[in-house]
Amino acid sequence: MADRVPMTTAGETRLREELQKLKSEDRPRVIAAISDAREHGDLKENAEYHAAREQQSFIEGRIQEIEGKLSAAQVIDVTTMDNTGKVIFGTTVHLLNMDSDEQVVYKIVGEDEADIKGGKISISSPIARALVGKSEGDVVAIRVPSGTVEYEIEEVEYV
Length: 159
Fold this sequence. Notes:
- The protein is of the alpha/beta class.
- The protein has two domains: 5-76, Helix Hairpins (Orthogonal Bundle); 78-157, Roll (Chitinase A, domain 3), CATH 3.10.50.30.
- The protein is built from three helices and seven strands.
- The chain has a five-stranded mixed β-sheet.
- Helix 1 runs antiparallel to helix 2 (47-71).
């Protein structure tokens, strides 16, 4: 059996929406394009046909990938949990860089949901791994390429 894949409710919703779009819009469009290209004759030298078949292969692969992830998903909704101040999957963590006094906010999410520019870090990232299990007020040393950075956990939100 495949390992469980942690996912937020928002991440699950996005994957289900993408899957719905692939099945209801993209797949029928590509099938029509293949049918249309077949009518143009010789398939060996038909670039439109080959491009449509390649796109169909990508779509079918993506559908299988999403279905696999959804079947192995362990959807975690932290909004239904009591806020204990402890960093767990799905929480939003407010950090203070002890050296520069810079504040950063990260939401710990599944690998498919990670977006560093959007403040979402993967549960498997070094920062998230160092934070999980810690509590508000703890100081955490995180190894980064340039050395070690110490952060104080100022607040943990279960939103």
